[in-house]
Amino acid sequence: MGALDGQVVVFTGAGSGIGRAVVTHYVAEGARVVAVDVADTVEQLAKELGDAVVPVVTDVRSWEGNVRAAAAARETWGRIDVFVGNAGITDGARPLEEIPGERLTDAFSELFGVNVLAPMLGARAVVDDLVKSRGSIILTGSFASSNAAGGGVLYTASKHAVQGLVRQLAYELAPDVRVNGVAPGVAPTRLRGTTSLGQTAADSVLDGTREVLPLQEVPDVDAYNGIFTLLASPSQSAAMTGTMVTADSGLSIRGLARPGGRVAEAGE
Question: Does residue 58 sit within a domain?
């Protein structure tokens, strides 16, 4: 018997990286998943995992796309127990000074559309179902949800907003729906960049990353499966809401590093 037997999940950002790993684990734990992504890789995921997965290719920044994902869960399994808002893009750690002023508005709209508006739309599309099932919402935050220098100005601001969204929704939806988040540090995956800044997908793990982690290892994408499963389980996390679970390989307790972004290293 799996930890998620009988649970029906709508999961965005399911096509690659942590999302793909968690969906695979959810199915192994007995869940049935509507796997949502802007890329058609979710269709291959469905082929691999069988009829426990229904793929939906859509842009999660649209209300219609989120409604379609929710409808797929209802039509296939008749209920929704968990919404996981995992879709996200990066700004390539771009500082404010390096973003041309004329591009800032479009870049903000694009990145916040995926990282903040999309989970809000997804939650709104399924909230009535979750109240009925006394289910849960899980949003993917980041080390950057509570720290500087985990990304650029847009990414860090967006992930701080995700932390606020977790807390506010937990307040608004209590006692019927639990709302929590996961704040990963690093994982070996490729993140889609902000096209308004001319960015494409890039590796999230840079040279030297392992050496700055207190645990001295870059965790695999599977390392986060247990936390997402814990938060989705109605029995294992029944007392948790409004919580952002940090899993950052110790980054937040690393100690003193550079004193500021414009401070040159000694000798430069």
Answer: yes
Contacts of 142 (CB under 8 A, 6+ apart): 88, 150, 151, 155, 159, 162, 183, 184
Examine residue 260 and state whether it is found in any structural domain, yes or no. Answer: no
**Mind giving me the DSSP string for 242-253?**
SEEEEESTTGGG
pLDDT in tens, 122-156: 999 999 999 999 999 999 999 999 999 889 999 99
Q: How far apart are CA 55 and CA 44, in angstroms?
A: 9
DSSP H/E element including 124? helix 118-133
- State pTM to two decimals: 0.94
Helix residue spans in 14-113 (DSSP H): 17-28, 41-49, 63-77, 101-112
CB 27 within 8 A of CB 48: no
Q: How far apart are CA 254 and CA 209, in angstroms?
A: 13
Looking at the annotation, which residues are catalytic?
155
Render 167-232 in DSSP notation, one character per residue: HHHHHHHTTT-EEEEEEE---S-EE---GGGT---EESS-TTHHHHSTT-S---GGGGHHHHHHHH
Identify which of 36, 25, 50 has the alpha carbon closest to the alpha carbon of residue 233: 25
In a domain, 267, yes or no: no
